[in-house]
Amino acid sequence: MSKPAVKPTASAPLKIAASPINTKTNRAKKAGAKAKVSKAPIKNRASAEIKKTLHPRNAHLHGYDFPALINALPKLKTFVRPTAYGALSIDFADHQAVKMLNTALLKHHYGIEFWDIPAGALCPPIPGRVDYLHYVADLLAEGDKSCAMDNVRVLDIGTGANGIYPILGSQVYGWQFVATDINVDSLSNVQRIIELNPPLQGRLHLRLQSNEKAVFKGIIQTEERFELTLCNPPFHASMAEANEGAKRKVNNLQLNRRSAVKTATTLNFGGQAAELWCQGGERQFLATMISESQAFAEQCLWFTSLVSKKENLKPCYQALAQLKVDTVKTIEMQQGNKITRVLAWSFQSVDKRKIWRSERLSR
Questions:
Q1: 151, 156, 300, 322 from 228: Cα distances, Å
Q2: Are 69 and 348 in contact (CB under 8 A)?
Q3: Residue 86 region by backbone torsions, left for phi larger than 0, else alpha for psi between -120 and 50, else beta
Q4: Bias regions of kind Basic residues — which residues (predicted)?
Q5: Could you tell me whether strands 204-208 and 88-89 are parallel, antiparallel, or unpaired per DSSP bridges?
């Protein structure tokens, strides 16, 4: 079995209220690579440059090594076949094939021996998910080589049944996570993944959000601090809209593969209701998140979220300007034909962020 991209920190189980871990296996220089981001003031922000390839530290930068992945997980072989160009691949319209690929990737690159999701749950593309983490690691470090990445505490909003951000963040950087969701069954599945993977134990803590209309409220506790918050908001405003999006995705796969793909309304990457849609869709979810973030301005160093729809950025910028947020940055990323954005904001000034890092993240 291949080792994780960064060897997990060997430490005793930690309780969520405990101080950040003191181990320092992951060096800040790995997190210090400069990401091209928009740094202009809120009222005069230029569009960020789109990254045509994955982050330089992304283990999947050069594609999938299918022979190595099959060696790690022999069951994957059933789903692998040559493309019209002779390269090995899978049918990305086949949910089971995508799930098996993820299982192999997590085992081969990140040392996760067991990973599974319920039928119909969202099966995330791992290269894009870990890209998000690499870019926010750069954002957090701000070029500070003394920043200890493995002291970082992260809040994951809407972790789903796959728990992918806490899994990857823990294994790549040694981060500690609080992962939330409104679905009890989703959290139960993530708990099972934790229990069957010793490296995750003591690093991932789960919290149920009992208020479907809230994001941070009821989750962040008094005096609790986080260096980062992460979120992949529901894209759609209804299940009907989600199904239409699934049709477009399958049709695109059909065109790209130049071979027959069964076009159906099922989602090839899966997704349960809470993972795919909410009242008001992505725009409303982001508006709620931004509004609530002000109450926790002193408890979170950076708030971040993926933004799938470009047209949702402008209302976000307007809302952040009204709250007088100190710093807003936008990172645009591209994986294949899909372009997404990381929107990040901090109520802390540059000097305050430096003090925060020196007090909580320095060696």
A1: 12, 9, 6, 22
A2: no
A3: left
A4: 26-37
A5: unpaired
Q: How many helices (H) and strands (E) does the chain have?
A: 10, 10
pTM over cut 0.90:
no
**What element of type H or E holds 170?**
helix 164-173
Position of tokens 């796959």?
Answer: 162
* Domains located in the chain, CATH noted: 28-60+119-234+278-360 (3.40.50.150), 64-110 (no CATH)
Q: How far apart are CA 70 and CA 123, in angstroms?
A: 19
First to last CA, the chain: 31
Instruction: Chunk the chain into consecutive blocks of 10 residues (it has 363) and report each block's average pLDDT, rounded to whole numbers.
Output: 38 31 35 43 47 87 96 98 93 94 98 95 93 97 90 96 98 98 96 98 97 96 97 69 50 47 39 55 95 98 95 97 97 85 97 96 83
Facing residues of 53 across strands?
none
How many Å apart are CA 158 and CA 86, to the nearest integer?
A: 39
The size of the chain, in residues, is 363
Of 146, 113, 112, 142, give the one whose Cα is nearest residue 130. 112
Concatenated DSSP letters of 33-72: PPP--B-S-GGGPPPPPEESS--TT-TTTT---HHHHHHH
Which DSSP symbol is given to 76?
A: G
CA triple 206-209-211, angle to 5 deg: 175
Beta-carbon count within 10 A of 46 CB: 9
Whether 172 and 197 have beta carbons less than 8 Å apart is answered as no
- Collapse the DSSP code of 264 into the 3-class scheme (helix H, G, I; strand E, B; otherwise coil) and give the result: coil
* 267-269-273 Cα angle (round to 5): 60
Across 162-212, the runs of DSSP E, i.e. the strands, are 176-181, 204-208
